[in-house]
Design goal:
about 475 residues; mainly beta; eleven-stranded antiparallel sheet; globular
């Protein structure tokens, strides 16, 4: 069949085994650990057991749709409508996500419950079925009051290119393009912010923004060679080896060099600057898991992590559950050291979708920090609540009664908004990429004024001890309005 049975690079070998039908049934890592696969008569994967022993099973109906999956005690059922569209999912009998569609079959809403909060993602489309908007909403568990809302809208030109984006609470972003969509400039509202000059291969060679100009050059192989700003301290020069690996980044302030193994893995970083010379070595086992570096820890006997789970390093001890999730991280006591019970312990708790929902850090058996997290149905974090240890009115040290709340807004897979009670930070990315282009930071108070919220509205939205909203009596609202005026 001509199928690869092993690959060797730098003396490290990974091998594959096949059944009579030519399907991979066994994968052996460079550490000698195995992952196995099983299939049904229709070549569908029905079971896989990983390097760490975790087993997952899959069941399909007669039409090939996945209807049940098992993951070390987590049983998920997948439900569909008559048009074979996914409608909802249950995990261990509890409803997880729900999908809703319009009469044309386009997805309009995905919702689920995250730690009691109803979190929904809404989608809008134009007549051609192109996405025109995405909105995330979070509602209070008891009152159903709207706690958070974030929306991003999109528009298209006559050629069908997405040339206009309206971020939440910001002016419209317009992308100026030529040809088949090459970026030539960017406007925020009516203000031109960025202009691009490109070479014959349509690669960016000059970027102008305000009084700054960024010049970019490339090697004959097309690799980034230099980026020079008319503020010299920000200049960067890049050097590559014959294998295409980045080996040096030079700037007026410092030089950073990188070294690699014959397998292409990073083995060290060397940073030099005025009065600075730092070498950071990296050691790995054959499968690429980090090991204590022999130069810094010559007494270490560790040579590999067979199950791909790192149990300890130079600073911490790690513990995992049967799903491979990190559950505990504790300060490592050096050999010969005296235990004083002042080790800090980090504990991590997850939901049925393997998302981190609760974190604590303790010392002397006392909590130092506690945080809880909310997610939307797509697994994107939408909220974080943090309680920190502080001194109360009686002089005792304890966790704060009211959490610090941070909200997150998304445009697809890109995090675009981070908001807390002090500021709102929004990021505009280059089109179709995860490369940040513009950062807009607004004081939350200014944001409230631009949204024309009254004092009563602001207090009601942020007045709950759990970070949620409260409802004032009409008389109190009138008093606050008079006070504000």
């Amino acid at each position: 069949w001509g199928k690869a049975i092993c690959t060797t690079q730098g003396g490290l070998t990974r091998s594959m085994e096949y059944d009579a039908a030519g399907r991979v049934i066994r994968l052996t890592s460079e550490n000698g650990s195995h992952t196995t696969f099983r299939y049904d008569v229709l070549d569908r994967l029905i079971q896989e057991t990983g390097f760490d022993g975790r087993t997952q099973r899959y069941h399909h109906d007669l039409t090939g749709k996945l209807i049940r999956s098992e993951d070390e005690g987590l049983v998920t059922h997948w439900h569909y409508d008559e048009a074979d569209r996914l409608t909802h999912r249950t995990v261990n009998g509890e409803t997880a996500e729900q999908w809703q569609y319009d009469e044309r079959g386009w997805l309009t809403d995905i919702s689920h419950i995250s730690k009691g909060h109803r979190v929904t993602v809404h989608y809008g489309y134009d007549e051609k079925g192109r996405l025109t908007g995405e909105r995330q909403t979070v509602h209070h568990p008891q009152t159903e009051a709207l706690l958070w809302q974030h929306e991003t809208r999109h528009a298209y030109n006559a050629q069908g290119l997405a040339n206009r984006c309206i971020p939440d609470s910001l002016p419209a972003v317009e992308w100026l393009t030529y040809g088949s969509g090459y970026l030539a400039g960017m406007k925020l509202g009516d203000t031109p912010l960025v202009e691009y000059t490109r070479d014959r291969l349509h690669r960016e060679t000059l970027r102008s923004f305000g009084r700054y100009e960024l010049t970019t050059a490339y090697t004959p192989a097309g690799q980034l060679q230099s980026q020079h700003l008319n503020s010299l301290l920000s200049d960067r020069d890049y050097t590559w080896n014959d294998n295409g690996e980045l080996i040096r980044i030079s700037s007026p302030r410092q030089t950073r060099s990188y070294s690699y193994s014959t397998t292409g893995r990073l083995t060290g970083v060397h940073t030099t600057a005025a009065n600075l010379d730092i070498r950071i070595p990296y050691a790995t086992d054959p499968a690429g898991n980090r090991l204590p570096d022999p130069e810094l820890h010559p007494d270490s006997t560790l040579s590999m992590w067979p199950d791909n789970r790192i149990a300890r390093d130079a600073h911490y001890l790690y513990r995992y559950d049967r799903y491979g999730r990190l559950t505990e991280k504790t300060d490592l006591i050096p050999e010969g050291g005296i235990r004083t019970d002042d080790e800090r312990t980090h504990r991590y708790h997850y939901d049925s979708q393997h998302r981190l929902v609760h974190y604590t850090r303790t010392q002397y058996a006392e909590p130092l920090v506690e945080s809880r997290y909310l997610y939307d149905p797509l697994g994107r974090r939408v909220a974080k609540r943090v309680w920190r240890r502080e001194r109360d009115l009686t002089g005792w040290m304890s966790l704060s009664r009211k959490p610090q709340v941070t909200w997150y807004g998304w445009d697809g897979d890109r995090l675009t908004t981070i908001q807390n009670d002090r500021s709102r930070i929004q990021t505009i990315y280059q089109p179709g990429s995860f490369t940040p282009l513009i950062r807009v930071e607004t004081a939350t108070g200014e944001l409230a004024r631009t949204q024309r919220r009254s004092l009563a509205d602001a207090l009601q939205q942020s007045g709950g001890e759990d970070g949620g909203s409260v409802v004032f009596p009409p008389v109190l609202v009138q008093m606050l309005d008079r006070l504000e005026s």
